[in-house]
Design brief:
Helices cover about 40% and strands about 15% of the residues. The chain has about 325 residues and is α/β, with parallel strands linked by helices. The chain has a six-stranded mixed β-sheet, with helices on both faces. A four-stranded parallel β-sheet has the order 5-4-3-6. Bound molecules: 4'-deoxy-4'-aminopyridoxal-5'-phosphate.
């Protein structure tokens, strides 16, 4: 049966759309995600012996400014490959901000409409950035954190399932797989087999789960340590206090050789020191990561400790701690 004019037009549009997305994935901003530098910390480590080195994986240098570029790209690629994300669908998800910025950046480049639910207390910089990329925003109760944003998204998707592509980063294997196939391989290459310890905080848990799973597959002797904020009411955007939060489906506690905690104060003090002493302008969870990595490093006589500089300090410019005298 010959195709109607409408069918032909639709097919042409679909093909053009796919070609543009393919081009954007292969050559546009998406192709610049990952392959971040591994930076040795040389100043905040002054009390450590020469035999112990601490490195930060500079994820804030991803084009969207955070580690979440990798997960967002992985989930969008998986959605396009499976057909779950196709012409006419809007991408929707709950996000504390960084995944949303990554989705918004990629969806702009790929011409995909995007709706994001986030707690109303997310930083003004994040909200402005999302709007700059053209995303539609839904603000949820700050007291409910990202859990409240997830509930809101689930309600919307349940009401019109055909309208949306809902990656659900807390339960999407493509989230941790982006780190299994990307971040972990880069860290192994960049440390040339010398890596002894990996330290990462838990949000969706994708970074910790993906990197640790790969490191353990390659060398079970590498110690993988997770950390969480030390209290339910913390100021570490993007991180979860698991005992009082909804535990992400992708989380695998068995990967952790030890679990640590970090206070918001220690995280902020370290973020300030990283800017002033190392010239690394990174956010609070990066501060928490380095503070925890240093705690681990201080217990060692010899070792190579790697942690993650999760996002850029530019996300927190409106916060007052940058102006304060040395906090530590
Ligand atoms: N730090 C920040 C600032 C984040 O936004 C996130 C993501 N929620 C994380 C750390 C934790 O990363 P993950 O989701 O991979 O656990």
């Amino acid at each position: 049966m010959p195709a109607t004019a409408l069918q032909t037009a639709f097919r042409e549009r679909s093909t053009r759309h796919t070609a543009r997305q393919k081009q954007a994935l292969a050559g546009g901003i998406a192709a610049q995600i990952g392959h971040t530098p591994l930076v040795r910390l040389t100043q905040v480590t002054h009390d450590l012996p020469d035999t112990v080195a601490v490195y930060g994986k500079a994820e804030h240098l991803n084009p969207g400014g955070s580690v979440k570029d990798r997960a967002a790209l992985g989930m969008i690629r998986a959605g396009l490959a499976s057909g779950a994300l196709r012409e006419g669908k809007t991408l929707i998800d709950a996000t504390s901000g960084n995944t949303g910025i990554a989705y918004a950046m990629l969806c702009a480049a790929l011409d995909i409409p995007v709706t994001l639910a986030l707690p109303a207390n997310a930083s003004p910089e994040r909200k402005r950035m999302l709007q700059a990329y053209g995303a539609e925003l839904l603000f949820t109760d700050p007291m409910e954190g990202t859990d409240g944003a997830q509930v809101r998204v689930k309600e919307i998707v349940a009401a019109s399932p055909d309208r949306y592509f809902y990656p659900d980063q807390y339960n999407n294997d493509a989230n941790w797989q982006a780190h299994y196939h990307g971040t972990a391989v880069e860290i192994l290459e960049q440390t040339g087999g010398a890596l002894t310890h990996f330290v990462a905080g838990l949000g969706t848990t994708g970074t910790f789960v993906g990197v640790s799973r790969r490191l353990k597959d390659e060398n079970p002797n590498i110690q993988c340590l997770s950390f969480q904020p030390d209290s339910p009411l913390h100021g570490l955007e993007g991180m979860k206090h698991l005992p009082t939060a909804r535990v992400p489906g992708i989380y695998d506690a068995s990967l952790a050789d030890a679990e640590r905690h970090c206070s918001t104060e220690a995280a902020i003090a370290m973020a300030q020191r990283l800017a002033r002493e190392e010239g690394l302008f990174v956010g609070k969870s990066a501060g928490a990561s380095v503070a925890t990595a240093l705690d681990v490093a201080r217990e060692l006589e010899k070792g190579v400790v790697v942690t993650v500089l999760c996002d850029s300090g530019g996300r927190y410019l409106s916060e007052s701690f940058w102006d304060q005298e040395g906090l530590d």
